[in-house]
């Protein structure tokens, strides 16, 4: 177990009344995580939306250990939490209480409540693994388990005509890796497709986070958020993440094809729990 270190930065919950007065700068400060991957460190943010922690681990020349943050007021990170991990970089591994789990790009791992020592390694420093982390409070113990990309129920959706041809991979959900409240997966858009999650929806029973990756360096994704009748947008670059409140849509379009991780936590594990907003109603 690691000794407590400095507290996690906190993102407080923002309501609809505050959103009405948001500027570009305040939207980015409240909902965008600009830097998740820094060499040989773990970067993380604590959000008051369902007490979720969003983070990234980038081991290059050395192993990186999951810290015990002082403001969690726990003996170790997963004493009262669970953790979902998806690798969006080169090959690597996650060691959980002495057991090594190898993760290639787009492989996922669930780590259950009560695991005390979690560390991250890359197979090659020149092509390091990039582990996206999402943690939520947990009330029960579920076993640590891996799911390779090929096993993650790949489902083709969308059409070329609507520029949203894509494949969805589900990792942590009711019919996949078991959890207390985490739901995680990712979406890969086909070349020439740019739209994600359209028609848009909200789910008032869960928050969500998006990590955009494989975004070309000179391109961006215009992430749409806000209630369906008062949308806003945030311009997002590669390896940046968005915090999405339960009252917000979470959709977007890129200037080139890209991929993104979606992760949820809240009241239920029902992937289909969505309140749709028809395109004609968006404002």
Question: Helix and strand layout, with pairings?
Answer:
Layout: E1 4-5, E2 10-11, H1 16-19, H2 24-31, E3 32-33, E4 42-47, E5 53-57, E6 64-65, E7 68-69, E8 81-87, E9 92-96, E10 99-103, E11 108-111, E12 118-122, E13 131-137, E14 145-147, E15 155-157, E16 166-172, E17 183-189, E18 195-196, E19 200-202, E20 206-213, E21 221-225, E22 232-236, E23 240-244, E24 251-254, E25 259-266, E26 275-277
Parallel strand pairs: 1-7, 2-4
Antiparallel strand pairs: 3-23, 4-5, 5-13, 6-12, 8-11, 8-13, 9-10, 9-12, 11-14, 15-16, 16-17, 17-25, 18-24, 19-26, 20-23, 20-25, 21-22, 21-24
What can be said about the biggest beta sheet?
Answer: 7 strands, mixed
Mean pLDDT: 96
CATH superfamily: Jelly Rolls
What's the helix-strand series? EEHHEEEEEEEEEEEEEEEEEEEEEEEE
Q: Count structural domains.
A: 1
Residue share in helices? under 10%
Number of helices: 2
